[in-house]
Amino acid sequence: xxxxxxxxxxxxxxxxxxxxxxxxxxxxxxxxxxxxxxxxxxxxxxxxxxxxxxxxxxxxxxxxxxxxxxxxxxxxxxxxxxxxxxxxxxxxxxxxxxxxxxxxxxxxxxxxxxxxxxxxxxxxxx
Length: 126
Prior knowledge:
Elements: H1 3-7, E1 10-13, H2 19-28, E2 36-40, H3 44-52, H4 62-65, H5 100-116
Parallel strand pairs: 1-2
Protein backbone atom coordinates (compact mmCIF):
# COMPACT_ATOMS: atom_id res chain seq x y z
CA UNK A 1 0.00 0.00 0.00
CA UNK A 2 1.21 3.50 -0.73
CA UNK A 3 1.17 6.34 1.78
CA UNK A 4 -1.40 8.17 -0.39
CA UNK A 5 -3.77 5.22 0.08
CA UNK A 6 -3.30 5.31 3.84
CA UNK A 7 -4.24 8.97 4.21
CA UNK A 8 -7.47 8.41 2.26
CA UNK A 9 -8.73 5.95 4.87
CA UNK A 10 -10.37 6.59 8.22
CA UNK A 11 -7.71 5.86 10.83
CA UNK A 12 -7.57 4.98 14.49
CA UNK A 13 -4.13 5.78 15.88
CA UNK A 14 -2.39 6.57 19.15
CA UNK A 15 -2.68 10.14 20.38
CA UNK A 16 -0.30 12.88 19.21
CA UNK A 17 2.79 12.42 21.37
CA UNK A 18 3.05 8.70 20.58
CA UNK A 19 6.24 7.82 18.66
CA UNK A 20 4.42 5.86 15.94
CA UNK A 21 1.96 8.67 15.30
CA UNK A 22 4.79 11.21 15.13
CA UNK A 23 6.70 8.97 12.73
CA UNK A 24 3.71 8.67 10.39
CA UNK A 25 3.04 12.41 10.55
CA UNK A 26 6.71 13.11 9.76
CA UNK A 27 6.07 11.42 6.39
CA UNK A 28 2.62 12.88 5.68
CA UNK A 29 3.09 16.51 6.78
CA UNK A 30 5.90 17.41 4.29
CA UNK A 31 3.80 15.93 1.49
CA UNK A 32 0.80 18.09 2.37
CA UNK A 33 -1.23 15.05 3.44
CA UNK A 34 -3.51 15.04 6.45
CA UNK A 35 -4.50 11.91 8.38
CA UNK A 36 -8.26 11.26 8.66
CA UNK A 37 -8.45 10.38 12.34
CA UNK A 38 -11.72 8.93 13.67
CA UNK A 39 -10.30 7.99 17.08
CA UNK A 40 -7.16 8.33 19.16
CA UNK A 41 -6.54 5.20 21.21
CA UNK A 42 -3.31 4.42 23.03
CA UNK A 43 -3.90 0.68 23.62
CA UNK A 44 -2.69 -1.53 20.76
CA UNK A 45 -5.23 -4.23 21.61
CA UNK A 46 -8.07 -1.69 21.51
CA UNK A 47 -6.81 -0.30 18.20
CA UNK A 48 -6.72 -3.81 16.73
CA UNK A 49 -10.18 -4.55 18.12
CA UNK A 50 -11.59 -1.46 16.38
CA UNK A 51 -9.85 -2.43 13.14
CA UNK A 52 -11.17 -6.02 13.35
CA UNK A 53 -14.72 -4.66 13.78
CA UNK A 54 -14.34 -2.48 10.70
CA UNK A 55 -14.49 0.87 12.53
CA UNK A 56 -11.31 2.16 10.88
CA UNK A 57 -7.85 1.20 9.67
CA UNK A 58 -4.53 1.74 11.41
CA UNK A 59 -0.81 1.78 10.80
CA UNK A 60 1.22 -0.44 13.13
CA UNK A 61 4.44 -2.41 12.98
CA UNK A 62 3.87 -6.05 12.06
CA UNK A 63 5.09 -7.08 15.51
CA UNK A 64 2.05 -5.39 17.10
CA UNK A 65 -0.29 -7.77 15.29
CA UNK A 66 1.39 -10.91 16.63
CA UNK A 67 -0.39 -10.56 19.96
CA UNK A 68 -3.82 -10.70 18.27
CA UNK A 69 -5.38 -13.95 19.55
CA UNK A 70 -9.03 -13.29 18.79
CA UNK A 71 -11.11 -15.03 16.10
CA UNK A 72 -11.70 -11.92 13.98
CA UNK A 73 -9.40 -11.77 10.99
CA UNK A 74 -7.09 -8.82 10.55
CA UNK A 75 -6.36 -7.92 6.93
CA UNK A 76 -2.89 -6.45 6.50
CA UNK A 77 -0.98 -4.70 3.75
CA UNK A 78 2.66 -3.67 3.68
CA UNK A 79 3.43 0.01 3.13
CA UNK A 80 5.79 0.19 0.18
CA UNK A 81 6.07 3.82 -0.89
CA UNK A 82 7.68 5.41 0.90
CA UNK A 83 9.18 2.74 3.11
CA UNK A 84 8.73 4.10 6.63
CA UNK A 85 11.57 3.30 9.00
CA UNK A 86 11.96 4.02 12.66
CA UNK A 87 15.22 4.48 14.53
CA UNK A 88 16.38 2.15 17.23
CA UNK A 89 18.26 3.95 19.96
CA UNK A 90 20.16 2.67 22.96
CA UNK A 91 20.41 5.62 25.34
CA UNK A 92 23.11 5.56 28.02
CA UNK A 93 24.18 8.31 30.41
CA UNK A 94 27.25 10.31 29.40
CA UNK A 95 28.09 11.16 33.00
CA UNK A 96 28.85 7.55 33.93
CA UNK A 97 30.92 4.86 32.27
CA UNK A 98 28.89 2.22 30.51
CA UNK A 99 28.00 -0.89 32.46
CA UNK A 100 28.94 -4.32 31.23
CA UNK A 101 25.27 -4.85 30.32
CA UNK A 102 25.01 -1.60 28.31
CA UNK A 103 28.25 -2.34 26.46
CA UNK A 104 27.06 -5.88 25.66
CA UNK A 105 23.63 -4.58 24.55
CA UNK A 106 25.31 -1.99 22.31
CA UNK A 107 27.49 -4.60 20.63
CA UNK A 108 24.58 -7.02 20.25
CA UNK A 109 22.40 -4.31 18.65
CA UNK A 110 25.19 -3.38 16.23
CA UNK A 111 25.64 -7.02 15.25
CA UNK A 112 21.90 -7.54 14.73
CA UNK A 113 21.56 -4.38 12.66
CA UNK A 114 24.48 -5.41 10.46
CA UNK A 115 23.01 -8.89 9.99
CA UNK A 116 19.45 -7.79 9.21
CA UNK A 117 19.75 -4.26 7.83
CA UNK A 118 23.23 -4.19 6.32
CA UNK A 119 22.71 -0.98 4.32
CA UNK A 120 21.33 0.86 7.40
CA UNK A 121 24.03 -0.23 9.83
CA UNK A 122 25.97 2.52 11.57
CA UNK A 123 29.76 2.24 11.39
CA UNK A 124 31.16 0.13 14.21
CA UNK A 125 32.40 2.40 16.97
CA UNK A 126 30.16 5.27 15.76
